[in-house]
Amino acid sequence: MGRESLLPPLAAASPAVVALVLLLLPGSPLGGAVKARPLLSADGSCGKPNVVLVVSDSFDGRLTFHPENETVALPFINLMERYGSVFLNAYTNSPICCPSRAAMWSGLFTHLTESWNNFKGLEPNYTTWMDLMEKHGFYTQQYGKLDYTSGHHSLSNRVEAWTRNVDFLLHQEGRPVADLTGNKTSVRVMQKDWKATDEAATWIRTKATNLTQPFVLYLGLNLPHPYPSESSGENYGSSTFLTSPYWLERVIYKAIKIPRWTPFSEMHPVDYYSSYTKNCTGKFTQKEIRDIRAHYYAMCAETDAMLGEIISALNETELLHKTLVIFTADHGELAMEHRQFYKMSMYEASSHIPLLIMGPNIKSQLISNVVSLVDIYPTMLDIARIPIPKNCSGYSLMPLVEDKAKEAPSRRLRPTWVLNLSADPDELTNVATKFPAITESLNKKLLSIVDYPKVSAKVQEYNKQQFINWKQNLGQNYSETIANLRWHQDWKKNPKKYEYAIDRWIKGDVDV
């Protein structure tokens, strides 16, 4: 299937999107407007480009280059791939919303930000790359989801994050399901994201065009994160993969791969815990699994359309050739791989993120270097020609993507780490014990970066203390409150058993 066949029907698209898509068809003259070319300042020297960063939630990065992207039409991601640089091995630093965003906005690894869960991110007054760019002459604008100081999640989610080491198994999520809304003309399913997208596109058309300084625009999207399962209560998590027939038509249903699962008896304890608490240990038919994955891909198609609105606004205002466009995500989505949905895993579907850069002087290429979200911070500083702090965990991406990259004094050499999953793409075979020498060398490399046993102990102590503080604040209402969290159906079968398990954990009687 050629890329052009993945272009969506144009009837429901905005005029700007229609114009851009038509111009991008084979043989179109737009090539000069999208291809890399320098931005010249008034004195004839190369100036600083504008920057637009679009960050989605739960987007599987493999869809931006993997053969699996043939399952869904992603025309604007394909556009960025055609005219820009695509990172084949881009990863989240922590596969959960707030910690991953804290890493992206700070340029620091998670063990340095100490953002352990969705409620412990950066301090509200933390100096981000956007703050520094504003200080150095960029006009800055933000729309949509940020979530790098704290996430907006339920009490259940908070307590569950603290109690992962308690000696019990409780279902913490609703069973994952696929659901449809609207009809074949229903384009705007995720209204909140479309509102933020409209605001960002309007800002480009009405404000950005009048600026006398370079700008940096951030747009954060919720999609393609699954939706809250409202039928199960407000605290029951987000286990519904919701889309409309309009977007589902963009999915090639027969091309969807059914993931292979490891038998329960062979599962690693961490994987079994994740599968159980995500309510995925029951029986699923192949149709259920395929439908969940199809709906997820359809949600990715809607996300791509929002990216398209931003690119179209830049094109319409003739800002596209002056602007670096970056698309990425906080983490991926398992979508029933490894018998799980959501993320919270370093498996590929959960940890592999999209990362594409298009704009002036950006090469059209596929890049195999291993990169991650902490690289966004030094990249932004590099673009703004701000010296990169030596304590930064990441590295600028600009030397990898620029047509004629100049080695600036502030840039550091990137590690030459290599990742290769070609022999086991489903990640079902644990080879650590088969290659002890390699395993040990990798462990030494990891320990040179982070003393992970020490960090793990610190996280466990943090979780316990946060739970104790919460429990003490509740006083006599503790038992009733904890019995009505979203695990209540399991809890109420034997509340004394689970209360006893928590008491043992608090007293330190449980071996982790």
Describe this structure in words.
This protein has 512 residues and is an alpha/beta fold. It is built from 19 helices and 9 strands. The strands form 2 sheets. It has a 7-stranded mixed β-sheet, with helices on both faces. The protein has a two-stranded parallel sheet with strand order 4-6. Helix 1 (15-23) crosses helix 11 and helix 6 runs parallel beside helix 13 (376-383).
As laid out across the biggest beta sheet, the strand order is 3-5-1-7-8-2-9
**What is the makeup of the main sheet?**
7 strands, mixed
How far apart are the termini? 50 Å
In percent, how much strand structure appears in the residues? 5-15%
Overall, the morphology is globular
Helix share, percent:
25-40%
Q: Output the structural class.
A: alpha/beta
Average pLDDT confidence is 87
- Secondary structure tally, helices: 19
Q: Secondary-structure element sequence?
A: HHEHEHHHEHEHEEHHHEHEEHHHHHHH
Q: Which residues form runs of ≥5 with pLDDT under 50?
A: 1-46
* Rg, nearest Å: 23 Å
The total count of strands amounts to 9
